[in-house]
Structure prediction request, 420 residues.
Amino acid sequence: MRNIWSAAAGFAPVLATVATLIPVAGAAHTGIGVVVLGAAVSLMAGRSAGRHGPWRLLLVPAGALIIAAFAVLFHAAHAYGDAFFVLTVAAATAARAFGPVAGRLGRALVLPLIGMLIAPVNPGGHPLRTLAWATLAVFVAEAYVLAARLIRRTEAEDELPSTASARIHVWRGVQSALALTLAFTVGQAVFGEHWAWTVISAYTVGAAARSRGDALLKGAHRTLGALGGTALATVLALAVGDHRRVAVALLLAVLAAGYSLRQYGYAWWAASVTAALALLYSLLGMSGTAALPLLGTRLVAVVAGAVCAILPAALIAPIRTGAVVRKRTGECLRTIRDGDHALALRRLTALREAAAPLYAVRRFHRRRELAWVEALRALEPDLRTLTEHPDDPEAASRVRRALGPVAEDLRAAAAVLSPA
Prediction:
């Protein structure tokens, strides 16, 4: 129930954004694009790491300038807009080398740019018109997300301090640039006016990939989710027909379900977005069987985008999953020994997420790193106890006994990988 309530509260800004922008779009005859853009930005901003303070609203003018530059360049020539998008995202990714503040700033400025691709807002239209409506949608979305945080008074924790070297962040920026360049090239050459689907897929698979295995796993989840979503979308596209109010209600319900289930696997989110697109097509006047070919096209575009993200992650300065897990294990051990049990729980969550690719293949190849993860995961109840009662002797004793074997095996693994 706690997870359901959290998901419902987190999705409330999306509903408020949609409710605000629908009458605006209707009165101004802008089409549904501005509403979808606002909903997309609200979804992404609501899930972004770190504190969502009033400073985010101050970035809206800066985001508007980025949107304007993209719109103007794309209006002049696709190649200029493509290059601007690639360089902006690559710079925002590499900015993490300068610290968490720079990383959050980069993500906040890229957010509306990604939202413009998700929404059916034509960046090739008149730049001033695109700028005005996109800025309004972004401002409304950010304002509602901020209001929700203030009302709920959530413990919006700062993101974990990155221990990755500046070199790794720079290489991730290079990987994202190559992935997006491939995605723009393939998308615009093969998928015509639906090229954005390839670019979005490349961004979502590669942007937050922690390692080569993580990129592969996200690509597989996105493909499987798109397959499941296409099956559901086929039913929805035929059932909804021209009933616009039903389509809006189902669209929000599908996104809300995906938002809630995303914590159990990215495939759920990919499936919900694919199904929501079928409902969006009905709102755009493309209902019934007319929308079905587009769902097949989107599935192929999603797979192509995932491949565009996986290739640079696997071939250009790849980051091995085992290395990430070993590093995160060492961080957990040090944090527990320092007595910061609340931070240790958060680092353990990060460790579990980093080890996801190893869990995905454990039936075929079980790595020694999984034993460390499972041993530390077994300590979660004791760590929670020590967070509330630091002097609990039994919990402290169990934690100390469990840390020894993990630390010893971690040192042995490090000695094998880098012999003296």
